[in-house]
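Sanity check

After download, print the first record. It should look like this:
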Amino acid sequence: MRQIAVIARRELASIFLSPIAYVVLVCFLLLNGISFWLIVTFVTNEPAMQMQSSPLQAFFGGTLLYYLPILAVCPLITMRTLAEEHRSGTIETLMTAPVRDFEVVLGKYAAALIFYIFLWLPTLLYVVLVARNATSLDWGPVASAYLGTLLIGVLYVSIGILMSAMSKNQIIACILTYVVLGGLFFLGLGEYVLSDEWWKNVWSHVNLWSHMEELSKGIVDTRRVVYYLSGAVAALYTATRVVEARRWRA
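Expected structure tokens:
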């Protein structure tokens, strides 16, 4: 546990010393700010919408603008975690240290996930604004929406770590992560376009949009939680095996 914390602190320091981290932060906040402003404007001007959903419910998964920043930033914050270590040759130094492969992977993963969470912290301001201007606010859906956002990060960051472990170049790692995450996202949309009920049910298990639609209403389906957690465990386990294989080849 101590080694994981040491690696995570080192990786976090590296992230926050990188200019790209602040570019990602600004772009992420800008996109979320635009999304929230558009939603509030639309809901305010459409009385019928005020009866159907709150701005926060629409913000968390109600539009494509919620998913685009997530799909954009996860590859960027994970691409260098292990790929850059391979490119610079520092992975050999790390591998010869008294640290196990899974500790390296989990340390890198923890740092990237913490940064992902950090990106979402400013959105708590939107919750405060809605709470101050609404007659009443149901905190259950707000909590479950943030839970869903965290679960997405848990899975997507783990996939990014895996792609980085498999690559010797951070650009390639980034592209691979975009391909995998984009593929998962669009495959899930098959639930809305397929007519066969069996296939619709299959794709519903990976449909990010329908998952967030449920969570933003306060519905927490344990099957969704298991999907994200088991997917993350599988990705991190595979990443550990990849790192282990590289150690033996070295």
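If your output differs, re-run the checksum step. Summary of this record's structure: Residues 2-249 form one domain.
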